[in-house]
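User: Here's a chain of 319 residues. Predict its fold as tokens.
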Amino acid sequence: MRDVRGQTHAKRALEIAAAGGHNLLFIGPPGAGKSMLANRLLGILPPLQDDEALETCAIHSLNGGFTLARWRQRPFRAPHHTASAVALVGGGSQPRPGEISLAHHGVLFLDELPEFDRHVLEVLREPLETGSVVISRAARQAEFPARFQLIAAMNPCPCGYLGDQSGRCHCSEDRVRAYRARLSGPLLDRIDMHVEVPAVPRALLLSRPSPDGDDSRTIQRRVQAARDRALARSGCPNHALTNKQVDAYCVLDEDGRALLEQSIERLGLSARAYHRILKVARTIGDLAGVERPSAEHLSEAIQYRRLDRQPIIQAATQF
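Assistant: Prediction complete.
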């Protein structure tokens, strides 16, 4: 993580996502470090437990991809945006697991998210909710586990430079709107955190390289401690809390409830977005080591819903 110059806000979001197992979308121009951040997630995630490692190895063995050197290492799958729906979810005359199952207990990284075929992206909706995928064929039916953490990245516009101070972006509002429309509302609703990754300042790039922030091992210890709190409280990471568990374990104080009611009204949040904000706030509270998330934690969680907070078309000065 120290290799990433600047991007303090994005690194904080990545730590929260790791602690709670939350799905995360990075939005920013080319070269801002979105892929670099995603590739460093494995270094801060807790190690696999034995039962998780066995499940992962069993799935990979179906495709002949199991190697002893990968024992107890979380998988990281990054299919190209030209991947088909079958490649992503699995299939064939003799059903085999696809990328989402090969990422079981690990990370599925989708770079250039809007470039994926919309039908391909829509097939992710059910596995993101259920943690499994059912493949039906005339001769047989197969069910594969798919409890993966989705990390995605996208540009703010087709050229990638919307809001850049150089003014190099000449994308029209219609082009930007069509680009964003490739991602459906139901899919974005299932991504807990939408995080802006701005371009790295030139002065920071030209400065002498030096350690920037905590290293991955230090962050991993905080992530492990926060996840241990969640497991001791509910038996699962915060992203997997049921609605009933959210009501029981994400209790807000009076200020927090007022802030949430105001946010629902102003942002028009769906019931799913409402619960996901509470789950992220619960994770932020676990990282802080508190028993109950406060209005401050809730406010930070709301800030990670960028695509809900801001209109789809923005002037360069507002990006």
